[in-house]
Automatic annotation (TrEMBL):
Matches recorded under SUPFAM superfamilies: Ribulose-phoshate binding barrel (SSF51366)
UniProt xrefs under HAMAP family: OMPdecase_type1_B
Reported function: Catalyzes the decarboxylation of orotidine 5'-monophosphate (OMP) to uridine 5'-monophosphate (UMP).
UniProt-recorded name of the protein: Orotidine 5'-phosphate decarboxylase
Subunit structure: Homodimer.
NCBIfam families: PRK00230.1, pyrF
Tagged with keyword Transmembrane: no
GO molecular function per UniProt: orotidine-5'-phosphate decarboxylase activity
GO cellular component, one term: cytosol
Domain Orotidine 5'-phosphate decarboxylase: 21-237
Residue numbers annotated as active site: 77 (for ompdecase activity), 79 (for ompdecase activity), 79 (proton donor), 82 (for ompdecase activity)
Length: 266
């Protein structure tokens, strides 16, 4: 019990380069604009998430290849949900593109099917979307509280072979306490510093809190994409991450003051 309590109170000690712990969500209308943003961000970002908007816009996998050619890591966030055989086939097809992460949003059999075909791609189980709160879950027919639902889904995902989970920072500490360190936690819904705009994200934390609670990676979209200067916003987040993962062996001790970067997005 003492050991799990310690785990729950320290940030990730996995050997992940600090600059790769920031994943920028390319929630952009088309690949042209996505490439322009990537080029503007330059070396300040090395990991990108591509979701449904770009998938429907066309040129999705050409963009994946374009990013890979430039040395970027890629997170395919399509939240596969279908009969297990189809999910397995989709993950198998994904192999040719060299994606680093892919999401599945389904039951145990779907998750197991995806995990069985991953071959280098980390399979991440979606627990509860960060745009949902307790009231939303009750509307969907779930009576248990969100923490219990997230923990249950995460435990089952790991049991069937998934590499990690998508979870808000609000549940990350409980996940670490209950399930240990040997899995990935990717946390969206990040609001750097004073950026607390009201929008569709309901379960949010800031950069420091996410990592203090045990996240391995954070996903940031609008606070970077919609900032007056996206590159400055990305560099500010990276500075926060470097401060947390300075040469202290992975323990979080220093917290920096929010910079003057003007974040617009949420």
């Amino acid at each position: 019990m003492v050991e799990t309590e310690a785990i729950a109170n320290r940030q990730s000690s996995k050997p992940i380069p600090p600059e790769e712990r920031l994943i920028v969500a390319l929630d952009i209308p088309n690949t042209k604009q996505a490439k322009e943003l990537v080029e503007h961000l330059g070396d300040s970002v090395s990991f990108y998430k591509l979701g449904l908007e770009l998938f429907m816009a066309g040129g999705y996998f050409e963009l994946v290849e374009w990013l890979r050619e430039r040395g970027k890591r890629v997170f395919v966030d399509l939240k596969f949900f279908d009969v297990p055989e189809t999910v397995a086939s989709a993950v198998r097809q994904l192999r040719q593109y060299g994606a680093d992460f892919a999401t599945v949003h389904g039951n145990d059999s779907m998750l197991k099917a995806a995990a069985g075909e991953k071959n280098g791609t980390k399979i991440l189980a979606v627990t509860v979307l960060t745009s949902l709160d307790q009231g939303d879950m009750e509307d969907l027919g779930f009576e248990a509280d969100i923490n219990k639902i997230v923990l249950s889904r995460a435990r089952r995902a790991l049991e069937v072979g998934c590499d990690g989970v998508i979870s808000s920072g609000l549940e990350a500490q409980d996940l670490r306490k209950s399930l240990g360190e040997n899995f990935l936690i990717i946390t969206p819904g990040i609001r750097p510093g004073s950026n607390q705009r009201i929008d569709d994200q309901k379960r949010t934390v800031d950069v420091e809190d996410a990592f203090h609670k045990g996240a391995d990676y954070i996903v940031v979209g609008r606070p970077i994409r919609d900032a007056d200067d996206p590159k400055a916003a990305a560099e500010d987040v990276q500075a926060r991450i470097r401060s947390l993962f300075a040469a202290d062996g992975g323990s979080a001790r220093s917290v920096i003051t929010p910079s003057a970067v003007n974040y617009r997005g949420g």
